[in-house]
User: Fold these one by one.
Assistant:
Number 1:
Amino acid sequence: MKKEKTEQYESAIEVADGIYWIGFYDVDSGLHCNPYLIVDHDEAVVIDGGSRPDFPTVMMKILRTGVALPGIKALIYQHYDPDLCGSIPNFEALIGQPGLKIISDAANHMFIRHYAVKSHLVSLESIGHEYRFKSGRVLRFVNTPYSHSPGSFVTFDTRTNVLFSSDLFGSYGSQWELFFKLDAYCIECNTFPVCPNKKTYCPLYNILRFHQHIMTSAKALRHSLKQILKIPFMKILPQHGSIISQPNDFVLLFKLLGNADDIGIDAITTEKSGLSHEDIQIRFVDRGDNFNGN
Ligand SMILES: [Fe+2]
Ligand SMILES: [Fe+2]
């Protein structure tokens, strides 16, 4: 069974018109990274290109699509983590084009440059939050601040109505499928996260758990979901987990994530401020501590 699954994911998979999943299906990993390639005539861009160890697999899949490497005009990074950006120097070396652009929010570029980047760093602000192919096809960028990085954003392909959501709608879990699938009874589940059918994992809980750990706060997550609701997407392509395309699943997931209060720091403290002036006064003044060792 596992072997069949591995074979199924050995090549790039076209998941929408001209959009390819070029990730690495690692049977031993609970966190699968999903880089994507968009091919538009003789041009291409890579979204969230992947980690350094995944690079040979990712590049092999790109080559198998038939794309000519100089045709890759831009690498888009929706935040600055190493699971997306680690392979930037490898991409630069193989593409070998001085005109290659690295597109991200300026807040991400501050950190992206530390991957020893040589290419031109292009900020979303400087291109009016959109990337235009020669054909006229437009990618729109929408900021989702603090979900989970200050400069995080999502990318909407206006031609296919695909939304590249980066870590949003991602998932942890050893049971991975490229396409999100819920059993009919999941919709009405009232024992969540324990499966009434005794499955050893719950795909919905895996998504919730991922957001609880990775996102900064319920406030930030809800703000981002609100921004995403305004986008006329039909399919969500996350950087981890599975591709989501069923309207029922969108409803379920937006409600699940939008109602969760225990996200990021909110799971640790609900205090508005855990620090009072009195705490500071007691520690540094009343107690008479000084820093001279006396
Ligand atoms: Fe991340
Ligand atoms: Fe990630």
Note: The pocket of fe (ii) ion (ligand 1) is lined by residues 79, 81, 148, 167 (CB under 6 Å).
Number 2:
Amino acid sequence: MGKLEGKVAFVTGGASGIGRAQAVRFAQEGARLVVADMDGAGAREVADRITSDGGKAVGVAVDVANEDAVAAAVSAAVDAYNRIDILSNTAGVFDHYAQTLEADRKLWDSVLAVNLTGLYLVTNAVLPHMLANGGGVVVNIASVAGLFGGGGGAAYTSTKHAVVGYTRQLSAGYGHQGIRVNAIAPGAIDTPMTANVSHTAEVQAWMQQQPARRLGTPEDVATAALFLVSDEADYIHAVTLPVDGGLAGTL
Ligand SMILES: NC(=O)c1ccc[n+]([C@@H]2O[C@H](COP(=O)([O-])OP(=O)(O)OC[C@H]3O[C@@H](n4cnc5c(N)ncnc54)[C@H](O)[C@@H]3O)[C@@H](O)[C@H]2O)c1
């Protein structure tokens, strides 16, 4: 029997990279999936792949920064499955290391809108359904840029620190009502988000100085997320787990 048998999981950013890997992994463990992404065609493609592998999934197009779109996507999920047990807040955008003087108001607002306000909007739309069912589990995808400076630019690093704080507060506010919340801080993971930098000679040389001596894979993060959302992690609340090949521990 799978570790998530009978559960319904809602994964944002599920069309690509870390979100996609979680959707596929959770489905392999028996969860029924809602794959939600701005890229609706990509989300449906991931849902189709899960379905053709024998799982259950629907793909929905949603901009997590748009409150009405989020409400519609969560309603569609509840219509399809009647419940949501697991929420993975994974959708995010990068600022390509723009320092504050290089971050114009448009970039700043757009990164905050997706990485922080999006997380708040999706969580607020899903949480009432979890509370009505007596509980649920949330995993928020932060970043090592949420633990120290230098992992992104001004906007990205600010939002990822905020994701760590939001995770702790969500746990403090709703843990006693059966809501278990944790975050993951991935290091350098090989996904489309990082494709233009992660294979440069400079990054490869830097990687050789890290304990794991390799880039992470989306599956490395999905495995950790699976553990955190499963009942095996029942006593783990409010942590931010680095999945970074040792980066944060050896700075
Ligand atoms: N790749 C890394 O090295 C790395 C490291 C640390 C943290 N992260 C975090 O992991 C998460 C996933 O990143 P990834 O590397 O898989 O990137 P990715 O670009 O492969 O995937 C991000 C997904 O989010 C979706 N998305 C973007 N804006 C959206 C919006 N407004 N509404 C809905 N969906 C939206 C995109 O369409 C895409 O499918 C992000 O939050 C990112 O900050 C990534």
Note: The first strand starts at residue 8 and ends at 12.
